[in-house]
Amino acid sequence: MKSPFYLNVNGKYGLGAYEKPDFPTLSDLLAHMDRLGIWQTVAYHSNARDLHPVFGNRFLLEDMEKTPGAKERVIPAFAANPAMLVGKGEMEHLVSHLADGTVGVVVLFPVTNRFRFVEYRRVFDRIKAYRPVIMMDVTEMTSEDLEDLAAIAPQYPELNFVLKQVMWWQYSRVFDLLHRAENIFCDISWLHTRDAIRFIREDVSYQRLIFGIGYKSHAAAAIAGLSHARIPQEEKDAAAYDNFVSLLPDSVRSKVMANRKSIDDQINNRFWKALIAEKPLEDVLVIDAHTHIGPFARSWYIPENEIGDQIATLKQDMARYGIDKIVSQPETALFGQPIEGNRMVEAAIDDRERFQGNLVFNPIYSELYTEALLDEFFKGGYYCGFKLCPEYLGMPIELPNYQLVWDYANKHHMHILFHSWEGNCATAKQIAAIARNYPDATFIIGHTGGGTEGRRESEAIAQDPQYANCVFEFCGTFTTDICWEDSFQKIDYRRVVFGTDTVVHEISWELGRLLSLDVPEEWIKEILGNNMQKILDKTVLPK
After folding, report:
1. What are the DSSP calls for 239-253, one per residue?
2. Protein fold of 7-256
3. Of 267, 241, 264, whose CA–CA distance to 75 is shortest?
4. Does the pLDDT at position 404 exceed 90?
5. Residues with Cβ within 8 Å of residue 257, at least 6 apart in sequence
6. Quick one: which of 21, 111, 166, 437 has the most CB atoms within 10 Å?
7. Which architecture characterizes domain 270-538 according to CATH?
8. What is the dihedral angle through the alpha carbons of 199, 389, 385, 362, rounded to the nearest 10 degrees?
9. Where are the domains of the chain?
10. pLDDT at position 317 over 90
């Protein structure tokens, strides 16, 4: 369930040098907080990172004075770097605001400001008496910096260090750091992997979880992920608010607590309201078009790797969220034996109405696949399409190894789900170039191309009639700050299918991200299942 109070630690606004901002003004940031039902936020001005700490810090205080309501809602975060130790009056500016209780949070940008984390020790020596919270985005920390943090944090017990915006490929490193120093904390904004919150709670402590939201494009994903985390409600409430507030210096904490307020969100669709109340979706078809079954390596922390246990978990998930059908691909074939890996999962499925699968085709072993073998698989009633992972395998889709897939899918009006990303093996543009030659097949561009470049390619593809058989899939599209509300100006919502990437991704996080978009409820309804069902209905399986 939703917690009564939230405090976001990831507030950033202002016209910076390196990207167009989610929030040009402080008012824009607060309006987004209003929409999500978050009253208070830590915030810094992007110029404190990109231009100069003192200048950006000043801009922040000026904006707080002139923005209605900001002084009650914004916890200012001042930037700092080692160069301020020699800049005239610069460290004194920071220290004076720490001393008078104006500021209780310091934010660091080692990578952008071109300092090693170890160089900040002299900064910490100057400010440790005021006990500010020290925060860094994990992307501002190199591998060497993270190792330095593990060594340095215990040397400064007066300080608490919060690593922000941690996603799956950094999760294992941060999980390890939480074990190595008691004054390191992790914000949950990007924790989209299954049970990540529960693992930290059970293996470290729920008190080390700090609430934050990610990009504006994430909408209320973090709220949904926390509300469905498999931990006690009082611990969710602590993660949403109290854990961070307890770290603040006394003078700052008292002001923050005095201004605490609970507000309702402004997300106006029935699906979101059901999800946040922990009720399954009703009166709507829900198809998860992108799931996995099988064991995982590559730094994933997954509670169940046995196939039978995963299927049982997925059945529980389907009941919990109101999912009618999932379409999965065997991990045992994606990264294991190409033919037997497909058979292994197929043999374990006991419900072929609600469970369907994409047959994994590994182009490295293309000679093992024949049309007769494909007929055998697709006659079995479980497989309904193909899954390709070219980027992981280093096999560009222009290779002749894939020809059987194109021909077979076109012949049977079948879909092909791609792991698409920026690279040189299966970009959105590469997929579209193949798709136009096989108009009776449906080419599902997984993750809608991946990051920002892939999203832009997908938007262009969606507007070109020669690529009418290209469809765009939802899961993993959070790695770009491009909002789906903007992409829907170029991509027809009827060409978008819902997927979660479970069992490795947390369904509530991905589902919450979709259901909290600021788009018409009818669009969400189609994306949840109807669009994928139309693709499945076109398929003509061999008899």
Report:
1. IIIIHHHTTS-HHHH
2. TIM Barrel (3.20.20)
3. 241
4. yes
5. 245
6. 166
7. Alpha-Beta Barrel (3.20)
8. -120
9. 7-256, 270-538
10. yes
